[in-house]
Amino acid sequence: MSFENKKVVITGASPDFGQTLSILFAQMGAELFLSARTLEKVDATAKLVKEVVPDAKISTFQVDVSKPADIEKFAHGVQEVSGEVDILINNASYWLDGHLAQADDTGIVETINSTATGSILMTKHFLPLLKNSKTPDIVFVNSTASLENNTHSTVNEAFSAAKSAQSTFADRLRHRMKGQGVRVISVYPPNFDNPSPLDDEQWNERRSHTELKYLTARNVFECIKFALSQDRVCSIDKIILSNNNASATEVIDEA
Fold first, then answer.
1. Are 218 and 197 in contact (CB under 8 A)?
2. Of 159, 89, 94, 95, which is closest to residue 126 (Cα–Cα)?
3. Is 209 helix (H, G, I), strand (E, B) or coil?
4. CATH of domain 7-240
């Protein structure tokens, strides 16, 4: 599928899944507006994308999604380049693992501010640009850690709460935007590996349910691409992924 000339905003575009998204959307012809907590990280992603797609159009921004002023400045910066945005991917979040009692207060606040408040404010400030598009889509890269009764072996309770808030926000926004042409898509992956899409062998590896392995970024990206590629009359609101195995690294409820 081609995303030729689509204007795509990706938060958390540092060397992880955000970088993977950046490479793949550039390969499909999109113009990118990338943000990360530091310019060093987002510029590293832009440099890598340019090595793969030399003619890619990329604008980079330093954005700490826990800071409202950074988010507002980001939206204004994008508006100076383009009067519209076609796809907003809320990918940035602050991971926190371990038990609640083990986490320091600062980490808990950062998790809530980055993951929940950050994605809400990001959406608010980019909505005017999205509404100028004929094909506006908002994608939330959520987590199965936000789901009720989901057993997750490593995630902190505060991270689950932040992702749950993000999920509820997406649900309410979807209801509010119904009939206005703005699709709101939430993808809920479990833990997943992030092989580089530039490594064909690793990226295209097919994993069996008999292997004690995670899903990969390819599985997650293909779900996002599938949802975005549907006719505008069709909105795939939620995609929930799970590991179809008895992975030694996940807690499985046998009851």
1. yes
2. 89
3. coil
4. 3.40.50.720
Pairing of strands 238-240, 183-188: parallel
Residue keyed to tokens 């400045």: 73
Q: Could you report the per-residue pLDDT of 129-147, keeping only the tens digit for each? A: 999 999 999 999 999 989 9
Cα separation values, 169 from 38, 184, 217, 255, Å: 27, 10, 24, 31
Alpha-carbon distances, residue 246 vs 194, 214, 241 (angstroms): 20, 10, 15
Residue 162 confidence (pLDDT):
93
Q: Which residue in this structure is represented by tokens 């392995």?
A: 213
Question: How far is Cα 155 from Cα 143, in angstroms, rounded to an integer?
Answer: 10
- Do 137 and 185 touch, CB atoms closer than 8 A? yes
3-state secondary structure of 189: coil
Give me the half-sphere count of Cα atoms (radius 13 Å) on the Cβ side of residue 4.
2
The single-letter DSSP state of residue 116 is I
Query: What residues form DSSP beta bridges with 184?
Result: 138
